[in-house]
Amino acid sequence: MREWKNKLARFLLVLSVLCMAVNQGSVRNVQAAEGLNLYKRVPFYNSQKVGGSIYSLKYNDSTKRYNIYIEKNGKKSVLAKNCISGTIVTNGKYIYYESGSFAQRGSFGYSYKGRKIICMKISTKKVTRITNFRDAGRAHSMMGCDGRYLYIGEQTQYGDGFGNFSVLDLKTKSIKQTNKDSSAVQSVKGKVLVNSVGFPHGGPVYLVNKDGSNLKVICDRAIKVSVKGNYIYYTEATYDWRTRKCRCDLNGNKKKALTAWSGGVAA
Question: Which end of the chain is more exposed for a tag (fewer CB within 10 A), N or C?
């Protein structure tokens, strides 16, 4: 009887260790799924290779919507035909985009109704509605995703210049709007750096928490932004095209002008 109890105890111990290993593996997988660098942005004007497949968008003039394509091993197929996003984001397993139908044409682009943010599982083409917008309005472009938060902006006539930068919480389905212009996002020291250099005259550069809170403006108008080492470099500009090169630390502090104001773009 004692020998049987010892065997049972050893079995339970091994089972416990295996369960701990599985749980630890799950935690690592969840952590690995996070990060802006794992989701690539695919704009309508340029294809993008992600996870061994090539993704692209093509505009359909008759429907005023984009087709989303995937190409693998030389074979190209359509993933979706109802996309109104000028850009999508994907990690090779899931794609996020906005669907809807054409409503009307205005002075600054098209308006769409029935707008919905969609998540598609690429392997099955199964779609899940994340959130929808009740009123007709401009389409949203997908700017980035870290697995928990989706970063979006309203499309404008300026291509990569987006309005009303917003953060969609994929878990709670809530949206944090900033009413700030945007062009691109990147991860910087646990925060998100947003720039608006896609507009013809540039735009604001700012830091936000991953959920879009605690917005901190670094510069009201910049036409170049880069991150190197421990600094954020940006070219500050005025509307009469006087520029100077500046930098700050990764928290948006310790701002310093590196050049004097000059005409044209600072070197």
Answer: N
Compute the distance between CA of residue 197 and CA of residue 265 in angstroms, rounded to an integer: 13
Position 102 scores a pLDDT of: 85
Per-residue pLDDT tens digits for 7-63? 444 444 333 333 333 333 322 223 333 589 999 999 999 999 999 999 999 999 988
Strands (E), 51-161: 53-60, 65-72, 75-83, 87-90, 94-106, 109-121, 126-133, 140-145, 149-155
**Which H/E stretch holds residue 2?**
helix 2-32
Cα-to-chain-centroid distance, residue 142: 5
Rounded to 5°, the CA angle 208-47-32 comes to 45
Q: Cβ distance 186 to 200 under 8 Å?
A: no
Q: Is the pLDDT of residue 106 over 90?
A: no
Long-range pairs for 157-161 at CB < 8 Å and ≥24 separation?
157/108, 157/109, 158/198, 158/199, 158/200, 159/45, 159/86, 159/198, 160/43, 160/184, 160/198, 161/196, 161/198, 161/199, 161/200, 161/203
Under 8 Å between Cβ of 93 and 121: yes
The DSSP result for 10-50, as a single string, is: HHHHHHHHHHHHHHHHHHHHHHHT--GGGSEEEETTS-EEE
Longest dimension (CA), the chain: 92
Q: What is the pLDDT of residues 182-236, one digit of tens each?
A: 999 999 999 999 999 999 999 999 999 999 999 999 999 999 999 999 999 999 9
Residue type, 87: T
Residue 111 to residue 137: CA distance in whole angstroms: 5
Percent residues over pLDDT 70 in the chain: 85
168: enclosing H helix or E strand = strand 162-169
